[in-house]
Specification:
By secondary structure, the chain is an alpha+beta fold. It is 49% helix and 14% strand. It has 14 helices and ten strands. The protein has a four-stranded mixed sheet with strand order 1-4-5-8, covered by helices on one side. It has a four-stranded antiparallel sheet with strand order 2-3-7-6, with no helix packed on it. Strands 9-10 form a two-stranded antiparallel ribbon. The longest helix has 37 residues. It binds flavin-adenine dinucleotide. The site of flavin-adenine dinucleotide has 19 residues, from strand 1, strand 3 and helix 12.
Length: 435
């Protein structure tokens, strides 16, 4: 059985290439104002991104979250984690490496559940980076944490689904060529988790309206692409159903498992960025007594941050390793929930410490730290809030415990001592006699 913390030299060479490529080619691109990587109307930007994507493809690093049958490399989650730690430094890098949300998750469910026609129309061009997509689940009027409360409906009428309802915080909706929409199609189903289905709705379908675009604090408005959508008698063919009727919740879980661990891998990169900024400032900024690095309060920030990042990284890598072993996200649900809970806390703590040590500069928009701290808040809400993941984690852990038969806990010392006396009665007799 192998247990190794070293990376193979061949793969390390690829990681070094990614590191250099992200630093020199992608990070400068995302500093330019008014651009969004999904904006296909900007043909010059499109050709720049295409050129960068071609370089990634030439290195065999395109869409590495996918298996080889879908054009990925089939590296598995551990190698993907090492890659995503680097890619996570940049908001644009996932677009250049073919792994950006929500397209990556949408491609996964299209690959698993799509019909041949859906794969040809949507999956292939999505994987090639020719089109982009949106995942439409959350609604403004009900709690997004509980999908059984959803109100958007889809009813079959004359061979077409007719969709009515509202969705909001729809990432990438502005640029999406199609939407994967969750709607109630089986209102009478006994199991509330079997009432919803997924439907593919092409952009521009009559009745699909943008109410407004929502800005999330910490994101520059040029990058913001979370929209409030209204569906009024939106008609799509019956063949737009993705997966089984009533199967939306189960399908969504397949998608979310991968999404959560991939976000966590990228969060390591962001936390490390904040940590590097913390340390650089510590050794650079002078006060009367010397550099901030000489102050014990600063040293505590550095030590705590390093430990939290390394603990989190090990948890992510171990979970990635478990996914590779089991090849089923559902079997690693507990571990993924633990990662999901730990992720916002680590990023928030490290970004806040780095922000604080930079003083006024830290809280300004001249450094990315305030935005990182805000991203941490978002991470604690999307893909299931922290509270819900703690419930899942605790439930799964507690399922492995049995109640004690008697009145005392199994670790109760007098009870155990009595049992020990009986087991070693002969030894005790001999010892007492010897004294
Ligand atoms: C930047 C961003 C991008 C997003 N992108 C998308 C997207 O592309 N597609 C999409 O469909 N949605 C998207 N969302 C929406 C996101 O999925 C929801 O915000 C999330 O599911 C939470 O739902 P809610 O906002 O309705 O909060 P609520 O469900 O109302 O929860 C609010 C709070 O209530 C508490 N809470 C909820 N349930 C429990 C519980 N069981 N126990 C204890 N406490 C609880 C938690 O503190 C939680 O944070 C995005 C959101 C953001 C911020």
């Amino acid at each position: 059985m192998g247990w190794d913390f070293e990376t193979e030299p061949e793969f390390q060479a690829k990681l070094d290439w990614i590191d250099d490529f992200v630093r020199s080619e992608i990070e400068p691109l995302e500093l330019l104002p008014g651009l969004h990587p999904s904006d296909s109307s900007n043909t010059r930007l499109r050709s720049v991104i295409r050129r960068l994507q071609d370089q990634v493809k030439a290195q065999g690093l395109w869409a590495c979250h996918l298996g080889p049958e879908l054009g990925g490399q089939g590296y598995g989650q551990v190698k993907l984690a090492l890659m995503n730690e680097i890619i996570g430094r940049s908001q644009w890098a996932p677009y250049v490496f073919g792994s950006q949300a929500p397209d990556s998750g949408n491609a996964e469910i299209l690959a698993h559940y799509g019909t041949a026609e859906q794969k040809a129309t949507y999956l292939r061009p999505l994987l090639d980076g020719d089109i982009s997509s949106c995942y439409s689940m959350t609604e403004p009027q009900v709690s997004g944490s509980d999908p059984t409360l959803q109100r958007t409906t889809a009813v079959l009428d004359g061979g077409e689904w007719v969709v009515n309802g509202e969705k909001w915080f729809q990432t990438n909706a502005q640029y999406a060529d199609f939407f994967i929409v969750m709607a109630v199609t089986e209102p009478e189903a006994d199991n509330p988790y079997q009432r919803m289905s997924l439907l593919i709705v092409p952009a521009g379908t009559p009745g699909l309206e943008f109410v407004r675009h929502l800005e999330v604090a910490g994101e520059s408005s040029a990058r913001t692409s979370h929209s409030y959508l209204r569906f009024t008698d939106v008609r799509v063919p019956a063949s737009s159903l993705l997966g089984e009727r009533g199967g939306a919740f189960a399908i969504a879980q397949t998608r979310l498992g991968g999404g959560r661990i991939h976000h966590a891998m990228r969060a390591i990169g962001r936390a490390r960025q904040a940590f590097d900024m913390l340390c650089e400032r510590a050794v650079s900024r002078q006060v009367r007594q010397g550099p901030l690095a000489a102050m014990q309060f600063t040293q505590q920030k550095v030590a705590d941050s390093w430990i939290e990042i390394e603990q989190f990284r090990l948890l992510v890598l171990r979970t990635a390793w478990l996914i590779d072993r089991h090849r089923d996200y559902r079997k690693v649900r507990k571990d993924i929930s633990a990662v999901k809970v730990a992720m916002p806390a680590v990023l928030r703590n490290v970004a806040q410490r780095a922000m604080h040590i930079h003083g006024a500069l830290g809280v300004s928009d001249e450094l990315p730290l305030a935005a990182m701290a805000h991203v941490a808040e978002v991470m604690g809400i999307v893909d299931g809030p922290t509270e819900v993941h703690k419930i899942v984690l605790a439930r799964e852990i507690l399922a492995g415990y049995e109640p004690v038969a008697g009145p005392w806990p199994s670790a109760h010392v007098p009870t155990r001592r009595e049992a020990a006396r009986l087991k070693y009665a002969e030894l005790l007799e001999h010892t007492i006699a010897a004294f």
